[in-house]
């Protein structure tokens, strides 16, 4: 979540370091034929689901997120019906960027299924607000592409510059990008000006500052990845909360749902606990869904399943993938229990006659649940090739996952 680019972003979308467009940067000194061969191999690596010769495929039982999150109690949830139209508009937009992004970057962007993500996260938004929402997801993807590990190591990403850009664009103030060589910088400024200013100040401040906090944490995560920082389960979950861009996403959701809870109420312990539990439910569910792909790409060190197998305080043996998956499921169940308790605590703190605030809190809870449900729907959809979780309808029905493991 962005993964949003290859740690986990969502945001959850980060481009994996072995992505073809990053290989393109690293091999510019090679002859053209060699470059094309490497690109072809990279594309084959990402699209072929056949295990290498020294590996075998094992089927594991995933914790059933539909049951863990009681999704059957919310049968009215549906993906926003404006999604097909939004997808067409987005495709037309990408067609206009042929001189800005490479075919490989376009492949990554299309694979993220951002229109579906927006429509799944905001099932009731009108088309105008849904467009603003999609613009924000595009913004997240752009800054994550630019802040990728390779760019950071090459000195091509200036975090302070990006923070200043976001603050200026959010306030519709001028900001000079003329000295920036990366064409994605101007595109980022364009989308920041499209997605932040339509929000009322209270929502806009939360969305902007939440995005900045996320970028700062993602930059630290890039450093941690290159230094292979070790995590315990507790430290990993605390870290994970910082590097998933859900808090700013929820600020947009509050705006779309016209939730007018005051800053003071949102900062009370029950409401803060509610938000933290929602972030955990989204982030840890992503760990389950993304584990298959990360394991097969050797990028699973920053995943709760692998952290549980490495933490000596956790009764999960090293290499016991099924036990690691089960443990991750238990942490998701704990987070959902916390979510429900925080909802009760938030309502209990109100005066009995404060019906307006009670209604606002219940609307906020429903909005968070829609975001949680939408996150799952988006990630397991077959069109979201980033994860390619289920390979058959039977696997989807029974929450089974086939993973390539070493013999």
UniProtKB/TrEMBL annotation:
Keywords linked to the UniProt accession: Lyase, Magnesium, Metal-binding
GO biological process: isoprenoid biosynthetic process
Listed EC numbers: 4.2.3.-
Names of required cofactors: Mg(2+)
Transmembrane regions listed in the UniProt entry: none
Pfam families: Terpene_syn_C_2
SUPFAM superfamilies: Terpenoid synthases (SSF48576)
GO molecular function, one term: metal ion binding
Source organism superkingdom: Eukaryota
Family listed: Belongs to the terpene synthase family.
PANTHER family membership: BETA-PINACENE SYNTHASE-RELATED, TERPENE SYNTHASE
This protein's name: Terpene synthase
Organism name: Lentinula guzmanii
Organism taxonomic ancestry: Eukaryota, Fungi, Dikarya, Basidiomycota, Agaricomycotina
């Amino acid at each position: 979540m962005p993964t949003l680019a290859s740690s986990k972003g969502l945001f959850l979308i980060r481009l994996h370091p072995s992505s073809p467009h990053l290989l393109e940067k690293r091999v510019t000194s090679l002859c053209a034929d060699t470059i094309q061969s490497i690109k072809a191999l990279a594309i084959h690596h990402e699209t072929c689901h056949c295990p290498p010769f020294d590996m075998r495929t094992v089927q594991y039982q995933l914790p059933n997120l539909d049951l863990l999150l009681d999704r059957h109690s919310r049968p009215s949830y549906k993906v926003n019906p404006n999604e097909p139209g939004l997808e067409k508009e987005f495709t037309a937009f990408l067609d206009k960027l042929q001189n800005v992004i490479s075919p490989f970057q376009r492949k990554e962007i299309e694979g993220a299924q951002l229109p579906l993500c927006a429509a799944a996260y905001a099932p009731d938004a009108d088309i105008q607000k849904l467009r603003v929402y999609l613009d924000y997801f595009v913004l997240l993807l752009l800054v994550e592409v630019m802040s990728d590990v390779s760019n950071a190591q090459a000195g091509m990403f200036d975090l302070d510059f990006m923070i200043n850009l976001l603050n200026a664009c959010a306030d519709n103030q001028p900001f000079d990008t003329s000295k920036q060589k990366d064409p994605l910088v101007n595109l980022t400024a364009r989308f920041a000006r499209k997605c932040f200013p339509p929000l009322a100040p209270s929502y806009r401040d939360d969305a902007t500052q939440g995005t900045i906090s996320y970028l700062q944490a993602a930059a630290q995560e890039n450093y941690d990845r290159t230094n292979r920082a070790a995590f315990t389960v507790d430290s990993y979950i605390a870290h994970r909360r910082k590097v998933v861009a859900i808090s700013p996403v929820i600020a947009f959701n509050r705006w779309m749902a016209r939730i007018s809870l005051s800053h003071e109420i949102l900062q009370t312990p029950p409401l803060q606990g509610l938000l933290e539990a929602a972030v955990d439910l989204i982030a840890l569910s992503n760990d389950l869904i993304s584990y298959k792909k990360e394991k097969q790409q050797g990028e699973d060190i920053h995943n709760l399943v692998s952290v549980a197998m490495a933490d000596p305080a956790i009764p999960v043996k090293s290499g016991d993938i099924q036990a690691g998956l089960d443990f991750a499921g238990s942490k998701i169940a704990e987070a959902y229990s916390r979510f429900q308790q925080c909802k009760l605590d938030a309502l209990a703190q109100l005066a009995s006659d404060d019906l307006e605030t009670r209604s606002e809190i219940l609307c906020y809870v429903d909005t968070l649940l829609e975001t949680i449900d939408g996150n799952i729907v988006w990630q397991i959809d077959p069109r979201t090739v980033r994860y390619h979780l289920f390979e058959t309808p039977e696997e989807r029905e029974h929450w089974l996952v086939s993973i390539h493991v070493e013999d």
